[in-house]
Amino acid sequence: MAAAIIEASKKHPKPDQVFSYGTAGFRMKAFLLDSVVFRVGLLAALRSQRQGGRTIGLMITASHNVPEDNGVKLVDPMGEMLDERWEAHAATLANASSDEDLVAKYEGLITELKINTSVQANVIFAKDTRESGPALVAALTDALNAVGANFTDYGLLTTPQLHYLVRCINTQNLPDTKPYGEPTEEGYYTKIAAAYRKLMQGKPRQGQVTVDCANGVGAPKLKALAEAIGKDIFDVKVINDAIDVPSKLNSQCGADFVKTQQRLPPASQASALARCASLDGDADRIVYYFCDSDGSFHLLDGDKIATLAASFIADLVKAAGLADLRIGVVQTAYANGSSTAYITKTLGLPVVCTPTGVKHLHHAATKFDCGVYFEANGHGTVTFSLAAHSAIASHSPESPAQATALENLRALVDLINETVGDALSDLLLVEVILAHKGWGPKEWNSTYTDLPNRLVRVEVKDRSVFKATDAERRLLEPTGVQEKIDSLVGKYKQGRSFARASGTEDAVRVYSEAGERAEADELARGVADIVA
Ligand code: 16G
Ligand code: ZN
Fold first, then answer.
1. For the chain, how are helix, strand and coil distributed in percent, rounded to 5?
2. How far, in Å, is the centroid of ligand 1 from the Cα of 479?
3. Atom 12 in ligand 1: which residue has the minimum CA distance?
4. Which residues are CB-neighbours of 3 under 8 A, at least 6 positions away?
5. 8 A C-beta contact, residue 242 and residue 215
6. Is 63 designated active site?
7. Is 184:169 a contact under the CB 8 Å cutoff?
8. Average pLDDT over residues 198-204
9. Is 507 in the pocket of ligand 1 (CB under 6 A)?
């Protein structure tokens, strides 16, 4: 084994660079990633062996980043993100200084983690549409072959589709767990399409939804999903679907563009009050928006999706006679203060705030029976506890109304990809809820009004000196900085602001909100000056 790894590793030399497994795996300029992907492949096999041969997923994507970037991340057996304790092991292998050192570190992990290497490792993987994808896949298969892992290449997939497949594979043939679904791309469409058709039965047509796919992998996959559902009940217009022009990926389009620029992607020609949505490059984020009759742009971001989903699910659960299920919403410090107030005061549901990064939100959501989580940037889903799954599956309705609600709730569970935020599944979730409520985007938007807010990126010499606490809402270090922020915030009506080190870029981000637009801007500038 050692000789095989050394031989294969020679083809994938490590550049002079320090690598770290960030918020969403390794992500950087693609030309730096060859050795990293090779080594993450070794770790994926070890992870599978440590898990008794359960299948581990590996996704090659850099999400909403520029086309020149790429990245790699691992998916754990139930479709969740890699166990945080293993992120350090990924960095250990990625930073091994030579082929020999790599083998030494690899063997070190086997000893430290008590891994039985006679267990057959199983790994599945997929990639997004980036030009650098195929060469990175070659590095990966070199690693998997070197250690004798079984693997399946699923080709092009969205990130959430890969998460779905991992969970499907690992829940097949389990004595006391229902399989999550058919472990094929086709099975993904079939499951979601059937749930959507069920939920839309008898509902009035809502008109066309225009979806900007960021010129990424979401485009062909959304078309396949639409095909599976059928035009009669899903009228979607796909724009920005040029996946054969790699330079167009995420350029002037996509969820990140719309959220940060707060305007339409230029290719959009949607008419007033028409529903529009944008996905990101690997289709795990979605934001909605529309233009009013006066041409003004309105963003319906992750907070608006979370509140819509939470209110619908809370009503449905009650109507189904399952009021005992605990429903909660998980947000980050970036959630608009108005959304948090709406959830707690109007919907009467608990809100938990976690640090940025899907893994934190997801983990907190699983503490509820039905946990709705969304980052303001549009990444999110709903998780259901084992107790919720079994209550929903086994409850006997006491009236025809309860029976209908229960059937809808069962279909909703199938519609949602609870492994991770999934833009395609979230799109259908929003479409279903709007149809059930009889709402257009304007009615949805009017549920509450966002406080004016501002996000500023501040270049600093060393972002690692910024140590946050309280779900990143307060700074512990550098000393004295938080006191200055507090005293500034105190001067603004409905003022709130925080500064945190980015987990993905060399910068500090400052967020502010206040009662008035000008005040939110001024507060952001003031806090930026304090941290700069
Ligand atoms: C990553 C995270 C995203 C988070 C963003 C924050 C995942 C899959 N992705 O893209 O959830 O919002 O980082 O970036 O966890 P920042 O730390 O640079 O603000
Ligand atoms: Zn993404």
1. 40, 20, 40
2. 26
3. 357
4. none
5. yes
6. yes
7. no
8. 95
9. no
Q: Which residue's alpha carbon is nearest to atom 8 within ligand 1?
A: 24
The residues, any chain, with a CB within 8 Å of residue 362's CB and separated by 6 or more, are 80, 81, 373, 381, 383, 420
**Are 331 and 386 members of one domain?**
yes
User: Is the C-beta atom of 502 inside 6 A of ligand 1?
Assistant: yes
171 part of a folded domain: no
95 found inside a domain: yes
Residues 193, 244: one domain? yes
In a domain, 161, yes or no: no
Specify the pLDDT at position 167.
98
Which of 504, 505, 509, 511 has the most ligand 1 atoms within 8 A of CB, as the residue to mutate?
Answer: 504
**Is the CB–ligand 1 distance for residue 358 below 6 Å?**
yes
CA of 66 to the centre of ligand 2 (A): 12
Greatest alpha-carbon pair distance for the chain in Å reads 69
For residue 230, what are its two tokens? 């059928």
Whether 503 lines ligand 1, by a CB cut-off of 6 Å, is yes
ipTM computed for the complex: 0.97
Q: Are 409 and 312 contacting, i.e. CB atoms less than 8 angstroms apart?
A: no
Out of 400, 429, 450, a domain closes at 450
If you write DSSP's letter for every residue of 278-296 in order, what string do you get? EE-TTS--EEEEEE-TTS-
Q: Is 164 within a domain?
A: no
DSSP state of 22: B
Cβ 459 under 6 angstroms from ligand 1: no
**What pLDDT is stored for residue 22 in this prediction?**
84
Half-sphere exposure of 68 (CA within 13 A, CB side): 3
Give the confidence band of 506 by pLDDT, cuts at 50, 70, 90.
Answer: confident
Residue 286 belongs to what domain range? 178-450
Residue 67 in contact with ligand 1 by CB distance below 6 A: no
C-alpha distances in Å from residue 150, one per residue of 123, 157, 383: 6, 19, 30
Q: Whole-angstrom Cα distance, residue 240 to residue 251?
A: 10
Which of 195, 260, 242 shows the shortest CA–CA distance to 410? 195
List the structure tokens of 411. Answer: 């279909």
How many angstroms separate the CA atoms of 250 and 67, rounded? 7
pLDDT digits 0-9 by tens, 202-247: 998 889 999 999 999 999 999 999 999 999 999 999 999 999 999 9
CB 198, CB 411: distance < 8 Å: yes
Query: Any idea which residue has 């997939």 for tokens?
Result: 157
Which atom of ligand 1 is nearest to 359's Cα?
15
Q: Could you give the CA distance from residue 133 to residue 405 in angstroms, rounded to a whole number?
A: 44
Token pair 């970037």 is found at 69
